[in-house]
Amino acid sequence: MRLLGNALALPLALLSAAALSGCDDEAPTPAAVGRTAVDDVVAAADDARAGVLHELADALVLTGAEGTRSFTTCGDDLAPGGVVLNDFVRFGSSGELTQEKATATAVGLLEADGWTVDDPDNQVALNATKGELVLHLRIDPAQVQVDLGSECVETSRKVATEYDDRPKVGLAWSS
Asked: Signal peptide location in the record (predicted)?
């Protein structure tokens, strides 16, 4: 009987050691990884607003910035697996913008900041990407609208639902 106990003890010890060797108390949870990925996209969007969008507003003499931020889920409707960031900023204009000059200025500033502009010759709407960010810029003589968002940032279902439940908030625009 003692021999059987020793014979079982060694395999059980080896199995336990193998199972515990994969444990890392400091390994981030999938939810933490998902939140970090969304936080990185939010930080990139904030940098774009504070950087290239401010430069654009200054160059085109835009005023009265108003903006909102919201999040939506992406993936399967029944099991969302990611988050999409949606920032919307609207500027007033003096009404003296020329499409050609405004577009050329916007394309130059975006490309200098590392954005890839899909159709730089489009005089009304520009689409650009940088990393996971997607920017849609609509230029009208009296108003300029910016939709700055992200592609689907993969997260856990729990994280996606948490972000989707967040209310739309106003974005501060510092001069």
From this structure: 1-21
